[in-house]
Amino acid sequence: MSITLHTDLKNDLSAMQSFFALAEEIFDLSFQKWYEQGYWGKQYIPYTLFDNSKAIANVSANIIETQVNNQPKLYIQIGTVMTAPAYRNKGYARRLIHLLLQQWEHKCNGIYLYANDTVLDFYPKFGFEPAKEYLFKKEIIPNSLPLIPLNMDDQQSVSMLKNYYQRGNPFCARPLLNNFGLLMFYCGGPMKDCIYYIPQLDCIAIVSFDGPTMTCYELLCSHTLSMNEVLSATARPNTETVSFGFMPKDTNGCVLTESNAEEQLFVYSKKENMFKEAPMMLPLLSHA
User: The whole model's pTM is what?
Assistant: First the structure.
């Protein structure tokens, strides 16, 4: 057994393919198309252990740029924490987490992660503490306008989405910035049928519908529009409530509830904890 560390998978095709295979085995998660389409940028950094040529364990650093009170912030979101079954209980994940913390602790404002209920006792050993996120909901009155679905298999539509992403979401208090690749992990995959263009408002909305509830993940448009105007235009005639997939700047009329997501948020206690300042959430499409 020869265990080695690899932190530059993008420049080693064989190692990268083994990493992809491990992600599919553990999480049924495919990185292949995302990589082939050029969306794996510098913001996603895997730390991967190999036994000879086989990827056996990984912890990834996701660079998250956002704003808090109009001040730029850089956070590290830890993700893709996985170990091949035959190599568990040997301290490999622990080794990688220590390495990641050592390399990033003094280069960022904060570090956080989302963990499932099987590892809730694991992360406090590294100085992580549980934190709470909140969901924002409000009632809306539909004023539905025609929505044109954008086809994420069409390069012209993808280029259009990228152009609007660069304009930003003027209604989001904690935006995901400079990370179109992470957005496309969703929009090229599980959210590919949720992207719409509203010609009359010159706006792109990423939304899903479940009966009378619309979940709004992104509104990419001009700063001259009002949020309620765009939400009403995006809603279906039977929509009664919007559930935000981001933290709105204007919370007037919003009902706050503690997130009941399946994964627990943990924040590294030796760095800044933005979740202590006030009830808040990071965009759902920033989860890595």
Answer: 0.93
